[in-house]
Amino acid sequence: MEKNKTYMARPADIERNWYVVDAEDKVLGRLAAEIATILRGKHKSQFTPHIDTGDFVIVVNAEKIKLTGRKREQKTYYWHTGYPGGLRSQTAGDLLAKKPEEVIRKAVWGMMPKNNLGRNQMKKLKVYVGPEHPHMAQMPQPLEAQEAAK
What we know:
Elements: E1 18-22, H1 28-40, E2 56-60, H2 71-74, E3 76-80, E4 87-91, H3 92-98, H4 100-109, H5 116-122, E5 125-127, E6 141-142
Helix pairs in contact: 1-4, 3-4
């Protein structure tokens, strides 16, 4: 009886592509889910869960991301300073005003594995506030994300 072998990608066989996404009027969660899929490499037929098979993603116009409902006022990001009584919080609207690229980065990080592999895959995410980015030499392909909810 002949056994079928399971395919496992080798790091040397992986071809990395660059994609650019315009975040203008895109819903945050839907965009983050698509970005996480590409960073992990789940869109490729050679996807292997324990090997980084993903591609690079450049996000432009991060300040024009769309939050549905009342998330601008109600969604809260928490962190702790490490000192007693050091629990801090910030609404999504405040974070969008100060660091809009962090809103996208945090949303994508929530969809990635929380281990060394996930941290290395997050390094392939490049987020910029305006429409310009310094990665034109990599010739990124435009990635069409889903349209915003009406």
